Amino acid sequence: MSLAEIKEGNTVSISVDEHAAAVIPMQAASEDIWDKKYRLKDKDGDAVDQSIADTYSRVARALADVEEEGKRVFWHERFTWALLHGAIPAGRITSNAGAEAYKPATSTINCTVSGQVPDSMNGILSMVHEAGLTLKAGCGIGYEFSTLRPKGAYVSGAGAYTSGPLSFMDIFDKMCFTVSSAGGRRGAQMGTFDISHPDVMDFIRAKREDGRLRQFNLSCLITSDFMEAVKHDRDWDLIFPANASEVEDEETRIVWRQWPANNDSYLRDDEGRTACRVYKTIRARRLWDVIMASTYDYAEPGFILIDEVNTMNNNWFCENVRATNPCGEQPLPPYGACLLGSINLTKFVCNPFTREAYFDWDQFREVVAVFTRMLDNVVEINGLPLEKQREEILSKRRHGMGFLGLGSALTMLRTPYGSHESLAFTEQVAYEMARTGFATGVELAREKGPAPIMEQDIEVTPEMMLKRPEMADDGIRVGDKLKGRILWARYSRYLQKFARTGKAEDVAMLKELEETGCRFTHHSSIAPTGTISLSLANNASNGIEPSFAHHYARNIIREGKKSKEKVDVFSFELLAYRELINPQAMPFSQEEDEKLPDYFISADDVTPKQHVDIQAAAQKWVDSSISKTANVPTDFDYEDFKNIYLYAYEKGLKGCTTFRFNPEAFQGVLVKDADLEKTMYRFTLEDGSVIEVKGNEEIEYDGEMHSAANLFDALKEGYYGKF
């Protein structure tokens, strides 16, 4: 493919100055993704949306119809304006809002978390059933599996020994693959696991087996105690709640720990701690090294700092979070659900690539305000399949507004990603989004009423007093009843940051939130925005990331193809730069790439520490979490690699993920031709002979053309011919 293949018809506008706009044609890969994923079609496959403008109008109409009848025309116009000026609802909203006549059983919600998985056969299978319905509706789902007793534990009811959590995860994995295959959209799941569970080593190593748990992202729930044990080279106990006979056995070592599972058979003390049997004690650093080695080689498991998640949760008084959505940007309680949306930052860059480049903060705040109302309206048309999910989202009305195109926008502003200036810009974007969002939340609470949890009378418990000892200083005692909005606003570790900005308007807003409440409990979250960025943003950089490269390939699932398809794509900033500054003959060349200005940063140019610093700058004002990947070179030093995660812990992040290109394990969704060029793949033929092929070479196999790398992965992982 070359740039000459860019299609006409759909365009994306960027600001050049206050009075003009340059039109950047939508590249073929972007239009194709919109057509396959977000364009509404009828049962015969004929297009209902004739253009992206039709898609936007459909979504705006569906969300405006939630408003009072006399206001619907006005809000349809305002919502359409916001969509044309950078507001991009997440995939489930864009695909399914206003599509009830064609697919009535789908949801507009991206993120859910399962109910707590019970430690019983009936309980596990009931969760499989609920998860199947959730995935069928198009939602991603997360689960915690450390509630299940370890491998080899005795099950008295069955008179046998359990096969452990990992074997039951295999059931969820196969179910997800089956449901997603039938529905034509890849299912997405997250499996989390406590760092103190006796089977944690098996969990960490699970994906080393070809084809196993491939419908899951996996993350360890890392506690502050564990991190301190690693730092100080202490022992670490692997534990699970004890049964009555184990507690009475003098030879069994029992410790008292907080444990998430709500099981009446567990023995608890007055502080709510559970009696746990110590199965094994190991050095914390040994376990740490196993995690790091797996992450270095396989990019999993992820790293969720669960204590920080719960400490900074706005709903600290009514939730205990133990799992996230599949990409990790939404920590959620059992049956929690959240909808997403992102704002395209490239839309607000004026005079791009020039010394007069600037960011239009006024228009950004206006789009945030309108988009906040739009996302709140999505709650009313959630389409969630389970009653408990609907109750949860209607009670708290949480949504996750984020942004995409950070790397592209910084390039257009001539600011290198990872520089001190870029950190300040990132923090400012997150602050303005949060400040405007909660100010709009107060206005919506006055107009439509606050989230119901805000109006509930909440009884103060001993556990709440332990979490927030400052309540005692305010004269609050166990047994007192407070409105949810007071516990939410006055004692939220996150919201209280507004009181420390030194701005009178922030202090006044916080007081209003306490007195009036807010329409929603959570406002912000930064998602990875993969196909949204590629399609509707014409390949502006994903979420909070820099552009992966300015010319690279994306591996996508194409219905009917036997392996993934390799599609060439170009960064939005490259397209804009060529259109505005440096028009040249097609096609794009490697030599031209090398002549781009120094501020054209891609993922390989950013150090892991810079990745963490960017995430920390945004996390300060993001009340949920952030999906971010620190890309590291294949030859990156292992000891330095481990320090990335310690650094993330010290910076107060809620999670950390890295990706290192390792073709022996997998190649990833995004790949550079240079990496594939120097990677050899070995194929064994039926006669026993072996051929070696470069990863970027095309191979004819089984009547189809495949890239060598994609064919190798499909055969190795067992998904060949199953799309």
Task: Characterise the protein shown here.
With 723 residues, the protein is an alpha+beta fold. The chain folds into 4 domains: 1-51 and 87-110 and 325-451 and 521-634, Anaerobic Ribonucleotide-triphosphate Reductase Large Chain (Alpha-Beta Barrel), CATH 3.20.70; 120-320, Anaerobic Ribonucleotide-triphosphate Reductase Large Chain; 460-516, no CATH class; 679-723, no CATH class. It has 27 helices and 31 strands. A hairpin with a 2-residue loop joins strand 30 and strand 31 (704-707). Helix 15 (420-448) runs parallel beside helix 20, helix 15 (420-448) runs parallel beside helix 24 and helix 24 (608-619) packs parallel to helix 25. The protein is globular, with a radius of gyration of 25 Å. The two termini are 24 Å apart.
